[in-house]
Structures are given as C-alpha cells and as structure tokens.
C-alpha cells in the first residue's frame, strides 16, 4: 500500500541533546495561529471534566517517564497495536511490572493510589498512545500531550515535560519527535474490547433485476483526523433498495492511502447513496443524510464528514468503473 502523508511544514520540533549516553527531550515549541473567524465546536460539561483529568494524568505521567523501564513498557505495549494503532489502554498497563513496581504504582507516586483511581475513573477507556517520530525509549524522554475531548480537533495541543512545564504544539502538524499522548480510545466499546463490525440487515430483492454494487478503489486525500488521535477510522454507510451496508475500511487510514481490495456492498435494483465519515468517539449526536435521505445512523460530529453522493442504478448495470471525487476522497465503483 502506498503511504504518503502530505503535511504542512510551518512548525518543526527539535531535540535538546545532552551527553551522548543521556536521554533527550523535545524542545519547546509554539502553536500555529488559529484560523480567523473559525467557530470552534463547544465542549460539553462531561468532556470538560474528562479533559481536566487528562491534564492531571499527563503531568503525572510526564514526571514518571524519566524512568527508562516505564518508557520501555509503554513503547512495547503500544507497538502491539491491539486495536490497529500504536496505543494501549490504561487498564492493560496498570498491573504490568516496570522496574520493580507496576505501571499504576509508578503513576500514583505523586498523587496517591486513591487519587489516581478517582482520576482514571473519570476517563472512559483511558489510553496511552505513541505518536510522532520513531521513538527510542532508552534514549528519549518524551513530552506527554493531551488529546482533548470535544471542541476543535485541530486546536493547539498542550504537552508536559518531566519538570511539569506546559508546552503548546501545533494541532495540525505531526511532531518530528516522539510524543506520548493520553486520551480516550476511539476504537473499543465500554468493556475495552474491539467490536466486530456487522452489516446492517437488508431485505432480499429479486435477482432478476439486481445489480452488484462494488467499491473497486478509494483514494484518501484528507482523513479529518488530528495527529494526537493517530490513524483515522474511515467508515462508509451505503444504502439503497436491497442494500444496508455500514462498516469500516480498515486498509485506508492515512492521506495517500488507497484501497487495495474490492469491497462488495450488496445487490440493488435502485439508486445507491454513499456517506463517508471519520469515526470519532461515541457521542452519536449528528444524524447523517444525503440530500435529505436519512440513513438512520448517527455519528459523533458533523466535522467528521468526508463526503457523500447518490449514484444512479444505471451506473451499476455494466462493468464500467465510475469515479466520483468527493473532495476529501475519491471513490471508484462499478
């Protein structure tokens, strides 16, 4: 698969190098200015409480990462990609040993076990993720950033160093140094398990006038996912007479990716509507529709919209590939 990320280069992070055998840390940086006149989405009260807890956890974790055993533990567990990305749930890390103590014991050293328990209870599916450049945990002490809930996904990002000082990173530019990020996992259910997707139920139609609907290629240009949240979760809802497919295309996660397998959505005898989006969180407060046609599906935020279109039945009657550019992506069907 071709993987290429087209990113702005308005901001660069550098490393402060000490002696050759000493750990290094990212240098301070500033964020890019906000877009004039852009109205940021609101942050709900529950999200604000979660964010406050995330900042406390981030500061505490940053202070503990002077311990190479803890850095190695995080790097190794995130590299397992239990949900397909370089991240690990706190509940997984908590009991694991690192340097003669568990991860939870190390993290609670400055706040106490009870206070840590209260904090993590305020963050559903708390995760620790590794973002940015490749990380050598033996040598580099990274900053710990917060992937905040709600508001503008591309807002400046707060990160903490081992001394507890706050720094601001550009929310749109992936750092060129490793950064550990604490946030809420987007890919698991309430139990911490990665759910298995299933197609929506669809009525059977006569095979006599049924045309198979296939996606033969997908080019992703903008995934609408900030670097703090890692690889994107690209979902599509496809609905029409006889079709009710809704699912994730896991092989497409970054700008520049393309679909490398044919996806069959079903068989139809009518027009077919496509709705593409990047799935964030689980608020489910935005109803998706194409030209007033509702899918009966809700997503987290209208900002996650990638594109939609209605394709006539006649386009599926033959074998000609039909390309439709939706701005953030381009779909090819027949």
From TrEMBL:
This is DUF3103 family protein. It comes from Deinococcus sedimenti. Keywords: Signal. The keyword Signal applies. InterPro entries: DUF3103. Residues 1-18 form the signal peptide.
């Amino acid at each position: 698969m071709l993987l290429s990320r087209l990113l702005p280069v308005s901001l660069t992070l550098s490393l402060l190098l000490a002696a050759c055998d000493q750990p290094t840390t990212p240098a301070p940086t500033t964020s890019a200015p906000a877009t004039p006149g852009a109205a940021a989405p609101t942050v709900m009260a529950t999200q604000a409480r979660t964010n406050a807890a995330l900042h406390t956890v981030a500061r505490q974790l940053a202070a503990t990462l002077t311990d190479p055993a803890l850095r190695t533990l995080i790097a190794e567990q995130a590299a397992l990609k239990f949900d397909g990305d370089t991240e690990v749930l706190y509940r997984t890390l908590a009991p694991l040993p690192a340097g003669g103590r568990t991860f939870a014991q190390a993290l609670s050293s400055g706040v106490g076990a009870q206070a840590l328990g209260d904090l993590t209870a305020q963050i559903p599916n708390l995760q620790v993720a590794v973002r940015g450049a490749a990380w050598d945990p033996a040598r580099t002490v990274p900053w710990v950033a917060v992937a905040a809930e709600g508001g503008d996904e591309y807002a400046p990002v707060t990160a903490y160093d081992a001394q507890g000082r706050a720094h601001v990173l550009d929310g749109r530019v992936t750092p060129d140094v490793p950064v550990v990020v604490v946030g809420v996992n987007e890919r698991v259910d309430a139990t911490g398990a990665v759910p298995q997707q299933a197609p929506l139920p669809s009525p059977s139609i006569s095979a006599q006038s049924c045309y198979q609907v296939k996606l033969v290629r997908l080019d992703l240009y903008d995934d609408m996912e900030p670097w703090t949240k890692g690889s994107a979760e690209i979902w599509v809802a496809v609905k029409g007479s006889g079709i009710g497919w809704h699912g994730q295309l896991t092989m497409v996660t970054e700008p520049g990716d393309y679909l490398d397998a044919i996806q069959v959505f079903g068989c139809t005898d009518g027009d077919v509507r496509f709705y593409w989006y990047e799935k964030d969180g689980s608020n489910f407060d935005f109803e998706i529709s194409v030209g007033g046609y509702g899918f009966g599906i809700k997503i987290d935020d209208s900002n996650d919209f990638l594109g939609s279109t209605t394709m006539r039945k006649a386009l599926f009657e033959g074998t000609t590939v039909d390309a439709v550019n939706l701005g953030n992506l381009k779909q090819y069907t027949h």
